[in-house]
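[Meeting: bench + compute handoff]

Bench side (C.D.) handed over the final construct sequence. Compute side (W.E.) agreed to return the predicted structure before the next meeting so the bench team could plan truncations. Sequence as handed over:
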Amino acid sequence: MLEQIQAIRYVTPLREGGSLPGIVEADDDGTYVLKLRGAGQGLKALVAEVIVGEIGRAIGLHVPEMRAVRLDARIAKYEADEEVQDLLTASVGLNLGLDFLPGSFGYDGSQPPSPREAAMILWLDAFTANIDRTWSNPNLLVWHGQTWAIDHGAALYFHHGWPNRGSNPARFASQPFDASKHVLLAVADDLAPMHDALAAIVAVALINDVLALVPDEWLEPTQDMSDPEAVRTAYRLSLLARLDNPSAWLPRKDPS
C-alpha cells in the first residue's frame, strides 16, 4: 500500500480546483497537496489519482510522489474558514497527499515537453479516459524545466457507474477517446508507433502492483463487489480489456 504518514498542520487551501485541495505539512517533514476524501468527487477520485498517476510514472512520466495521509479531527477544529473546516471534518481519516512542487507554475505552452513525452501523456490520458487535460484545465505543471502530470481524478469514469450497472470491462474497452481538445495534441508525436512498447510496460504485473498501492478503505464495495479484492479485480479486468483494444481509443495522427 502507499506509505502512510500523518498530517501535522494544515497550511492553506488551494482554491484553483473544485475539490478544494490544501497544502499540509506531515510528520515525515514533507509538504503535500492534500486531496480530500470528503470532497465532492469522493473516494473514487483518490483511487483514480493513484492508478493513473502510478501508471504514468511507470511509463516514464513526471508525476509527484504520493502518500496516504491520515488527517486528525484536531486539525479541522483549528481551521478558521468554515467551508474548509467542514471539508476537513468530512475528511478525517486517510486522504491522498501528492508531493508539493514549490515554485512550479501551470502549463501555458511556453515550455512544451518533447514530442515523445507529449505523446506519452496523451497515450496515458486516452488509455485511462482522462478527459480533463484541455487548455481550459491543462492539469500540467512546469517545474525545473520539466512537465509534470497532475490531477487524474476525472479519469476511469466507468467506476462511477458501478453501484448501478456493475463492472463492464467490454464497455470501457470499446469507449472511444476524443483527443481533439487535448492540450498536447499539436505537440505530440504519433501514438501508434509507441503503443506496443507502452502497452508492454502496462501489463498484468504492473497493474497488480499499482492496484495494491490503493488503500482498502478507498475501495468502496457494491452489491456485486463485496470486498476490496473484488473491486481491484474489476479495475484490473477493465484496464486489461482496454489495453487489448487500442483500435477503439488510440488517437491517430492526422496525415495532413
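W.E. noted at the follow-up: The first strand starts at residue 4 and ends at 13. C.D. will use this when planning the next construct.
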